Amino acid sequence: MAPTRPAPHRLASGRPRVKNTPRKGPAKHQRVFTTYAKKLHVLQWLENNTMESTLDTFFKGVSARLTSSHKLQAHRHPHPRTTLDSVAEENIANWVCQLRSDGVPVSRLLLSCKALEVAKDLGLSTAQFKASPSWVDGFFRRWKMSMRAKTRSGQSNLAQGEAARNEFASRIQSVIQEHAIEDIYNADQTGINYEYLPKETINAKGAKTVWIKCAGHEKDRMTAMLLAESKGNKYPLFLVLKSMESKVKKVVQENLTTRNGFGRQVWQEIEELHERHPSRIYGNPTAWWNSTISIAFLTYHFGHRQGKNNKPVLLLWDDFSAHFTEDVVAYAKTVNVVLEKIPPTFTWICQPADVAWMKPLKACLRRKWVDHLRAEIDGSKMSDEPFKLRAPDRFELVEWVNDAWDSIARRTIISGFEKCHIIQNANQETQGVHHRNGIDFQDDETLDSSNHDDVTAAANVLESLLQMDVVNVEILALADEQEELALSDLDASLVDGQTSKP
C-alpha cells in the first residue's frame, strides 16, 4: 500500500510540508524535453500511418487536454440570445430603403426604435431584445448598409432636379436665340469662414470628452461673389467683410459713398489689399450681400458697356432678393445685361458654380487652413507657453480666397456650364488639338480665338477699373497665354530638330 501524507495537526501553523511526499497521480510529463531521436521516430511513424494513429500512439489524451483547455478559456457559458428572425429583419431593411428613396435621414437611433417596435409586435419584451449597438452593427453587415455623410439636402429628388434642369436649359436657349447672345456669365456668392474646424479628430478610444481647440472665430465669415463665363474666363472676386457701423449718421453715409462701407482706419488696410489682389472689397455690419453691392458689382464688371451698342450678354443669378431689385434690374438694362433667375431649390443642378466650382474652391481653402494650423503649431514650439490657436487675419483670408479662385482650372469653369446643359458638351479642350511626338499642339485658329477672348476680357476689366478711378493698374500675361507661348516655342524647336535630321 502506498504511503499517504499524514494529516497536519489542527493547531499547526504555516504551510504543509510537500518535500519527500509521493505524487497524487501519475506523471503527465507536460514539461518533459523531447529528444531529437523521439521526434525522428514520430515523424517516421507519421509517414507510414495517419495523424490519428500517431496521436493515439505517442500522445494519448491530447484531444482531451485540448478540449479541457478550450473550455477553461471560455469565461462565459454560452446561452441562447433573443434576436429578430430573418423575415423581421428583411422588413426593417425594406423600410430603411423606402425611407432613403424618399430622402428621409435614418440614424442609428431611428433604426433601433424601429427594431424595438417590430420586436414588440412579435411579443418580445425590452429585456429580451434591446436593439443594442452590437445588433445594429450586425444588421449593417448582414444587409450591406453603412452610415454615410450627406452630400446634398433638399426637398426634391434627382428626377425632379433633372426635369427642372432640362426646363431651365431650354428656357436659356430660347433667351440666347432671342437676344443673339454669345457670352454667358454665372455669378454666385458663398460664405468664406475664418476657421475650417473639422467635425472629427483622431483621439484615444474611450474618452468621454473630445476637445477641439479653436480661436473663437469659427462662426465668423465673409461673403465672396464669384463670376465666370462659359468660355472659361474668371473675373475678380467681390468680397464683403464685416465692418462696424458708426453711430454718427453723417460718417455712415460718408463711409458708404467713399470707402465701400469701411471707416477711415480700416480703409487704409483695404486700399493695401486692393493693391495686392484684384478682388474688390466692401463692408457692412452683417458681411452679407445687398442691392447696393449688386449695382457696384455690375458697374465694375459691365460698366464699360454703358452707352455702347454692344451685343447683350447673359448673367445667371440665383433667386436672391438683392439680385433682382428694381434698381439692379434697371441698371442691368442700361449696360445691356440680360438677368435670368436660376430656379430656386434647384441651384445644386442648374447653377454652374454649385455644380463644379464650389467644391474645389472650398477644398483649397481647407488646405490653406491646415497649412495655417501647421505653421501655428511649429511656431508654438519655440516658446514655453501652451499652444494658443490664432485665427487668420483679414490679409491672410483675402489672400486665401484669391489663391483658391486662381487655382480653379479653365476646364472646370467650362464643365459647370456643360453639366447644367447651358452649353453643349463640345469637349472644347480637344478641338483644334493635334498630337505629335507625344505632345498636344493647338492650331493657329484656336489659339487666335482663345487669345482674342482673353484680350477682350482684359480690356473690359481695365475699362471698368478706369471708370472707377482705380490707379496703378498693371497688365500681366495670363497663365493660359504663357502655356500657349511655351507650346508654340516647343513646336518650333521640334520642327527645327526634325528638319536638321538627315
TrEMBL record:
Sorted UniProt keywords: DNA-binding
A Pfam cross-reference name: HTH_Tnp_Tc5
Biased composition (Basic residues): 16-29
Record GO terms (molecular function): DNA binding
GO cellular component: nucleus
Domain HTH CENPB-type: residue ranges: 76-149
Record-linked InterPro entries: CenT-Element_Derived (IPR050863), DDE_SF_endonuclease_dom (IPR004875), Homeodomain-like_sf (IPR009057), HTH_CenpB_DNA-bd_dom (IPR006600)
Region feature (Disordered): 1-29
PANTHER family cross-referenced by the UniProt entry: HTH CENPB-TYPE DOMAIN-CONTAINING PROTEIN, TRANSPOSON
Record's protein name: HTH CENPB-type domain-containing protein
